[in-house]
Amino acid sequence: MIEKNQLLDQTIALLRDCLPADSSFIGLHEPLFEGREWEYVRDCLDTGWVSTAGQYVGKFESALQEYTGARRAIAVVNGTAALHVCLLLAGVEAGEEVLMPSLTFVATANAVRYCGAVPHFVEIENISLGVDAAKLSNYLETIAELKDDGLFNRLTGRRIRALVPMHVFGHPADLDALADVADRYKLVLIEDAAESLGSFYKGKHTGTTGKLSALSFNGNKIITTGGGGAILTDDDALADRAKHLTTTAKLPHRWAFVHDEAGYNYRMPNLNAALGCAQLERLSSYVERKRRLAKHYEERFRDHPHMSFIAEPSYAQSNYWLNAIILSQEAAVYRDDLLEATNDAGIMTRPIWTPMHLLPPYQDCPAMDLGVTEDYYGRVINIPSSVKLGETHEE
Ligand SMILES: *Cc1c(COP(=O)(O)O)cnc(C)c1O
């Protein structure tokens, strides 16, 4: 038997122990500007280059390439737009299906819908909370048919074009296993790496295993450009096409407006890229501090009988973008009480996302058995994870 008030008090005490004592409110994830942000943004304002032209977009893209090891990076307005373009470039067409986890932020599903395609929800595994490759493989064995021209869902008759794993809270999904499934079933592998800039899978940066991948630089991500995203790929032809599609499909010319298809105005403005350049210079130090905070949480929660801390899988080096605790089955009934009590105490917490298959726009989409997903939905709580919180813990 769990005594509710004792559980609440214990949790708040444990969290307080990991967090600065002098704050009346501690947010979930706040941005940090301690580098050359002012300098670069001021440069944009001083020179007038704030929008669709200017040097920072190219610089930001080069810096992203260098950090991630991706051959090409294309900066765009946000992570959702990056996902949308990845899917288009993967050849996802209206009426096709795209395999993706149900336990993700809604953007993953929305991007599929923007293509006129149908999200097909797949199960996650315990360690990374990412797509379960073994279960997926078994599932496809039973419901899908591999033909010369690709994979088809026997139940719906629709083609299944792509697989989009997501790296939950920055913890890399098992990419080798997923790439193997994608290979065997002729699926294009697209990584939703929106949360995992700074996370490595077996030494390789997340977002560089899939044919294409999407990053996000929203205000709550590990680095921010205000709003922003990027597409990563090693394929020059796809990268060129990504640049073209995201810049209104305008053909280069000194003055003429000739657009050879219906493109998108998805290009990242120079002002945002300037912020990105300064933030990226600090990324390694941000990851270090986030890992330090996570280690502290992990140690604190280690002996708790009803809570465990989500830690990086053995194959990975995670950025620990967003820390999370998992309640025991027994304590799960108190999830909402815990959310209430911690937020009342000035410590911001929130539940993991509502799984996509439970949301009105996606509840009728095809899905495999999502028992693990639904189980975690009721038991995962995100806790404060700002970079600056890692400063309070010396090694
Ligand atoms: C943040 C996020 C996105 C979308 O990024 P935006 O820049 O907010 O559009 C997509 N997928 C996941 C998993 C995210 O966390």
Average the pLDDT over all residues and give the rounded result. Answer: 96
CATH-assigned fold name of the largest domain: Aspartate Aminotransferase, domain 2
Bound molecule kinds, no repeats: pyridoxal-5'-phosphate
Looking at the overall shape, the CATH architecture of the largest domain is 3-Layer(aba) Sandwich
Q: What structural category characterises the helix and strand content?
A: alpha+beta
Termini separation (Å)? 37 Å
Which regions have little confidence, pLDDT < 50, spanning 5+ residues? none
Helix content: 25-40%
The largest β sheet comes out as: 9 strands, mixed
Strand content: 15-25%
Q: What coarse outline follows from CA principal-axis ratios?
A: globular
CATH superfamily grouping of the largest domain? Type I PLP-dependent aspartate aminotransferase-like (Major domain)
Text of the CATH class of the largest domain: Alpha Beta
**Structural domain tally:** 2
Order of helices and strands: HHHEHEHEHEEEHEEEEEHHEEEHEHE
β-strand number: 16
| Radius of gyration based on Cα positions | 21 Å
